[in-house]
């Protein structure tokens, strides 16, 4: 069964540093998403991406966040200057349509900002 | 804005007990509804989904959910739980908002099943 692959599985970074979280969505999917889950809290939508541009973003997705699909395969989330409160599990997901049939999630990247 | 409420934050059951997890959403238009499961240390997996037709949907591992439109509810059920069902369960709604679909998740329900 096709999978969404995320790397790294765990990243530790110092406050103020830039991090890039990587995702390889399912090859024939067209919509891509990033979610985060702070420990013990709900899964929060960050951004959706379609046709090489952001289609929706939440208020969490401020100027320190950016997404990119640099090569038609990878889908990255960049956090420019990390803060302690960015520590969370970040999930990438993809779907073949607007998610009406559900999303396929990656296994997540645990980001720890120290 | 749409929202999803999961009223049970923590549920503890013994094996073979019946399970019902509540999910209510606030959105008046057409919705697609999902339940996801997250086993300890693993990623979110789709348990079942509804978008039209029979309001009683069956998913994997013996789970089912019933969409009751008049109550804006999509409760998850399983007649007899197993220890391996210990996990976090998330209800999610996909509804059209301003021309796009923004999936919204509930806070999740932590289920612990004692052997």
Features:
heterodimer, A: about 110 residues, mainly beta, 4-stranded antiparallel sheet, B: mainly beta, 6-stranded mixed sheet, globular
Overall structural class of chain A, as computed from helix and strand content, comes to: mainly beta
Number of strand elements of chain A = 11
Q: Largest interface, with Cβ-Cβ < 8 Å?
A: A-B, 24 and 22 residues
User: What's the tally of helices of chain A?
Assistant: 0
How would you summarize the topology of this molecule?
The complex is a heterodimer of chains A (114) and B (115).
Chain A: E1 5-7, E2 10-13, E3 19-24, E4 31-37, E5 43-50, E6 53-57, E7 65-68, E8 75-79, E9 88-95, E10 104-105, E11 109-113
Parallel strand pairs in A: 2-11
Antiparallel strand pairs in A: 1-3, 3-8, 4-5, 4-9, 5-6, 7-8, 9-10, 9-11
Chain B: E1 3-5, E2 10-14, E3 19-21, E4 24-26, E5 31-38, E6 44-50, E7 56-58, E8 64-68, E9 73-78, E10 87-97, E11 100-105, E12 109-114
Parallel strand pairs in B: 2-12
Antiparallel strand pairs in B: 1-4, 3-9, 5-6, 5-10, 7-8, 8-9, 10-11, 10-12
Task: Describe this structure as you would to a colleague.
- The complex is a heterodimer of chains A (114) and B (115).
- By secondary structure, chain A is mostly beta strands.
- Chain A is 0% helix and 50% strand.
- In chain A, the strands form 2 sheets. In chain A, strands 2, 4, 5, 6, 9, 10 and 11 form a 7-stranded mixed beta sheet that branches. A 4-stranded antiparallel beta sheet of chain A has the order 1-3-8-7, with no helix packed on it.
- Chain A contains no helices and 11 strands.
- The mean pLDDT of chain B is 89.
- Chain B has no helices and 12 strands.
- In chain B, a hairpin with a 5-residue loop joins strand 7 (56-58) and strand 8 (64-68).
- Chain B is globular, with a radius of gyration of 14 Å.
- In chain B, strands 2, 5, 6, 10, 11 and 12 form a 6-stranded mixed beta sheet that branches.
- Chain B is mainly β and 115 residues long.
- The interface between A and B is medium-sized, with 24 and 22 residues.
